[in-house]
Amino acid sequence: MIKVFNHWFHRKTVAQVAVDLMFPVACVVLAAMWIGHGAPLALERVAFYAVIFALTMIILNAWLGIYQRVHSRTREETQARAVLSLYLAIPLAYLVFALLSVAEVDRGFMLLSGLAALFATLSRRVHLAHSRTSSLLSHRVLVLGVGEEAENVGRVLHKSDPDIHIVGFYPSVNDTEIVVPAQVILSQDRSLSDTAHALRVDEIIVAVRERRGGSLPLRELLDCKLSGVRVLDLASYFERALGQIRLDSLRVGWLIFGEGFRQSWRRTTIKRLFDIVVAFLMLLLATPVMLLAAILIVLEDGFPIFYRQERVGLDGRLFKIIKFRSMRNDAESDGKPRWAMVDDDRVTRVGRVLRKLRIDELPQLYNVLTGDMSLVGPRPERPYFVDQLTRDIPFFAVRHSVKPGLTGWAQVSYPYGATIDDAVQKLQYDLYYVKNHSLFLDVVVLFETVGVVLTGKGAR
Questions:
Q1: How far is 441 from 430, CA to CA, in rounded Å?
Q2: Which of 10, 75, 172, 359 is the most exposed, fewest CB within 10 Å of its CB?
Q3: Measured on CA atoms in the order 426, 81, 4, 314, is the torsion positive or negative?
């Protein structure tokens, strides 16, 4: 994993972006040099247009979710995204290279060379996604512990990252219950440090619930760290690998003494300026779409056009959220709040389309301009559900230490859901955002939100 401005990127994602940048540029420049037959060419101009083309494709791929950490994606979904990326690359390539004003170079041949590079890159990506992990990319992990927490981390790692290879589980002194299968438990004939070196371990994950009374081999863990083996606790590992802070591995001390959760006036000011500028521009661009949505709502179900509802915001303060009305007027005629469901029968036909395309959320740009919300942050909940979730879920109130958002890290990382368990899963992503939020992460979330809208997936 590589950390960029407090946000963790998978090393495979970084490698994909690097290849997507360098490979098309190299192919186009080499094609230009070959066509020129040694004649003097403005290679810097050729390279400039090639970089523009490659960066455009990287942005497009980000919007399509190709770089997103989605581990449950099927083979068909991966192939469909790669094919769509290639189809969209053709008109983009024509647009970029049509601007190329280098008379000595055959623009058509350069276009074909760039598209060929993209096709080879995307084909290779689809092949790698469904072949065995390369030994160069494989990450060897040893789990310290054999109890319930160790079994949980093993299950999550197998499910979340195909590049992870768990070499085994090493028992700790105070393991009173053995949950992991016997065949994956490592022998204690050798010390932890000797075992880690013999198995060429890259990382040790400490999955031990009780850490007092000498339960951890601290000296051996220090020897492993000094010899280059990374040592992480559960909370830190899940934060880095999954982009979430898992509640089942979280301790109050980790929140208090760990890095992150910084709220400074400088960060708040920069975020507020970014929100105002981007929200104003989005509001201008979305005005025609919003007018059309308003007309369709009135034609199908009459007035009112907007739906105002009380939500919980920063520091638990209440505010009125504004959305396009997507449900019938009698949606909650009994006065009892209900979770919105995937196929909710209270949603109108126009409302279903508005929800699918996230158009119903556009009026919340007004909430962003007034300062009640931010563009990116945890989604605001109704007071009724906040009271319930705060009682049932530990650390739920932590999400209110930042402004709620029009979109969020949980919305682009977790599929749609409207249950207590879904609220727990979303909270784990919200905690990651609260801990690591920055302008860079906001931009990442906004890009991925476009991909969620284009593919019609993601949480609300």
A1: 12
A2: 75
A3: negative
pLDDT < 50: residue spans in the chain:
38-39, 102-104, 132-133, 135-136, 458-460
- The CA distance from 418 to 340, in Å, is 6
Report the CATH number at residue 236: 3.40.50.720
Residues 163-174: tens digit of each pLDDT: 788 899 998 876
Q: Are residues 303 and 435 in the same domain?
A: yes
What pairing do the DSSP bridges indicate for beta strands 405-407 and 374-376? parallel
Which residue range is the domain that position 325 belongs to? 265-455
List, in sequence order, every beta strand (DSSP E) within 293-404: 306-312, 318-324, 374-376
Q: Output the six-digit token pair for 22.
A: 């360098």
Alpha helices in 372-438, H assignment, sequence order: 383-392, 409-413, 420-436
pLDDT (tens digit per residue) in 246-293: 887 777 777 776 676 777 788 889 999 999 999 999 999 999 999 999
User: For the chain, how many structural domains are there in total?
Assistant: 3
